[in-house]
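[Automated response] Your request has been received and processed.

Submitted sequence:
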Amino acid sequence: MTGPLTRRDTLRICAAGLALPLGALGLGAIRGAPVPVQWTGTALGGLASMTLWHSSERVARRAIDRLQVEIDRLENIFSLHRPESEISRLNREGGLLAPSPALLEVLDQSRRVADQSGGAFDPTIQPLWQLFAAKLSGEPPLNRMQLTATLARVDYTALSATARAIRLGRTGMAVSLNGIAQGYMTDRVTELLGNEGFEHAVIELGETRALGSAPDGTPFAIGLVDPAAPATLDRDVALANASLSVSGGYGTPLGAAGRHHIFDPRTGESAMRLSRVAVISPKAVWADALSTAIYVAGEDAAPALLAAYPASRAILTRRDGSGVEL
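Generated structure:
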């Protein structure tokens, strides 16, 4: 599980140029053909972009303006970087009255994946991230007693959530939804575009979701970072009416010994079973959570996890560089 940093920034920086199919930019020369309009910015502390195709640039830019309002609304729920967001207040106070439906829905999805993965995915991972972040900031080296004490505060079963209130059942517990909220936000924005009549778009808000295909009918090509050489790409994924999420420890190293930011909530150590997990799914919220859960739980757990989410599949890269598609 991840902390407040977005774990896919490297992927999205490298792949940004590949999200647009070859020749798509030339469509603007055809009278009345869809033209690409792009926005870049940040969402939940990470790089974000939206590319919309429409015959009217003005219509597309007005849609982007409305989508930015929606992104801001969701940031006020899920962002760990905003002190007055719902999740920040929940973590600070240990409870939250009258939570938003969006927060309840994401917590419900989180619990489902946590149950199915045997705790490999856990939305209460934040204390573990805070511990390692403090060590990187110059505090004394980590010791086993500190790790054990922190792990006692990581347990999604101690979190209760109803329409009336969310409660953290142990002192010092804290929630991070960075392993799933980006997917929820990506889905929300994509569905709003579809409801407005858009047929072609690529949304990258921590996860990638393609609305339709490219205007020429071909899938969008999304590049995957090579885990052995993170400055390069080693393959493309064809994406049409689907979502892509990628988890890999190469994104944010944490000190020596290969430690990185995707923690196993059950041990407190960085997950080391796989080198990269790419999940393709109809919904970004599913792909987001599944890529983390499979990365932590390992290859043997992947088939059952994927089977619980219709039309979901995965591309796994093992530590020795070999791969398998499920």
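Summary generated for your ticket: The chain is about 35% helix and 25% strand. The CA atoms of residues 244 and 280 lie 5 Å apart.
If you did not submit this request, please reply to this message.
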